[in-house]
Amino acid sequence: MADSTPSSPGKSLPVIDVSALVADGAGREPVAAQIGAACRAHGFFYVTGHGVDPALVQRLEDLSRRFFAQDEPTKMRWRMALGGRAWRGYFPLGGELTSGRPDWKEGLYLGTELPADHPLVRAGTPVHGPNLFPDIDGFRATVLAYIDAVTRLGHRLMEGIALSLGLPAAYFAERYTADPLILFRIFNYPTQPVPEGMDVHWGVGEHTDYGLLTILRQDDVGGLQVRTPGGWIEAPPVAQSFVCNIGDMLDRMTGGLYKSTPHRVTRNTSGRDRLSFPLFFDPNFEARVRRIEGLDSAATDDSAERWDRANVHAFSGRYGDYLLAKVSKVFPQLRDEVL
Ligand SMILES: O=C(O)CCC(=O)C(=O)O
Ligand SMILES: [Fe+2]
C-alpha cells in the first residue's frame, strides 16, 4: 500500500516552548503565533516548558506499567461494563474498534472524577461519573493530580489558540471550556504478536479526535504517525514533551482553518510494551458548537477525504451528542448496554 510507509524523513512536527503562555504574562503572543502556524500547517505540535511536574508523569507511567503487568482476569475486575454510563474502566486487547477493526491495544478509560451523587451523574448524563480506579497504592491520587495538571495546561493552550486566531484569550473559556469535558485514557500497546487469523492491522487505526485539543504523553517507544498533505510522517517521542493535536470541534469552529489531522499508531514490534496517555480537552457536554465569525476560512466539505466520511462542518448540536455518536462506534457492545 502506497500510503502505509511514512515518507519524508526530513519533515518533522514543530516543538514549541510554551513557558511564556503557562506563566500567563507578557510574551504570550510569540508563542501563540507559533501555535497558530503549527495548527495551520499540521494540526499537530509538541509542547515543552509546559510546567507539568516530570516526577508526576514518571509516577503515572510506573503505576500504569504495574497495572498492565497484571493478568487479564485481575484487570477485568475494573472492566468498562462496570462503569456503566460514566464510560470508565478497563478494556482488554482487541476490545476497541477503529473504523470497525480491533486496535491492538488495551486501556483504562478515566476522566474528571464526579461522585455518584453529583447532579449530572444523578441525571444519568453519559460520560460523567466516578472513575474505576485499580487498587494499586497511589494510583487514584496520581491520576487525579495528572488530570488536574494537564487540564490546567489545556486551559493555557486554548488561550494561545484563541490569541492565534485574533480572538480574546478567554474566547473558548467563555463559550465552551469553563467546565471542559475531560476524558483521559491510559493505553498499553503490547509488543506481543497478533494471533493468526485476527483482522488487526494497527495499534490504533487512522482517525481524528473528536473534541477541541488532545494533549498526549507518550513513552520512549514510538509508533504515532500523522497524515500530512505530503504523506505520513512520524511523531516520535520527544523527552519531557506532550504531543498536541486538534480535534473535530476546533476544525468545525474554525471552518477548517485548523484541521483535525488524521493520525494512527503502528503495531508495536519494538520488543517493549508502549504506553501512551491521551487527555482530551473538550467542550462542555451541553455546549452547542458554532463557527467562529470573521475567520478567513471556507468550511469546505472534506468528507470524501476523511476516515469517517463525515462532514464536520454540517454538524450542529451539543458536543455531547457528537461524542456519543462516535464513541458508540468504538464500543458497540457498550452502546447497547448504556445508551
Ligand atoms: O497512543 C497514541 O499515541 C495515540 C492515541 C490516539 O490517537 C487516541 O487515543 O486518540
Ligand atoms: Fe487520536
Number of beta strands: 14
Could you name the ranges where pLDDT drops below 50 across 5 or more consecutive residues? none
Helix content estimate: 25-40%
**CATH level-4 homologous superfamily:** B-lactam Antibiotic, Isopenicillin N Synthase, Chain
Count of alpha/pi helices:
10
Kindly report the CATH topology.
Jelly Rolls
How many domain units? 1
Widest beta sheet: strand line-up = 1-2-12-9-14-7-6-3
CATH architecture heading: Sandwich
Outline, from the CA principal axes?
Answer: globular
Give the overall average pLDDT: 92
Question: What is the string of helix and strand elements?
Answer: EHHEHHEEEEHHHEEEEEEHEEHH
Largest sheet: 8 strands, mixed
> Would you state the CATH class?
Mainly Beta
Domain Fe2OG dioxygenase: 177-283
Pfam family, one: 2OG-FeII_Oxy
Pathway: Alkene biosynthesis; ethylene biosynthesis via 2-oxoglutarate
Keywords: Ethylene biosynthesis, Iron, Metal-binding, Oxidoreductase
Helix and strand arrangement:
Blueprint: E1 15-17, H1 19-23, H2 28-41, E2 44-48, H3 54-68, H4 72-75, E3 89-91, E4 97-98, E5 101-102, E6 106-111, H5 119-122, H6 139-164, H7 171-177, E7 181-189, E8 204-207, E9 213-218, E10 224-228, E11 231-234, E12 242-246, H8 248-253, E13 263-265, E14 274-282, H9 319-330, H10 332-338
Parallel strand pairs: 1-2
Antiparallel strand pairs: 2-12, 3-6, 4-5, 6-7, 7-14, 8-13, 9-12, 9-14, 10-11, 10-13
Bound molecules: 2-oxoglutaric acid and fe (ii) ion.
Fe (ii) ion (FE2) is lined by residues 207, 209, 214, 263.
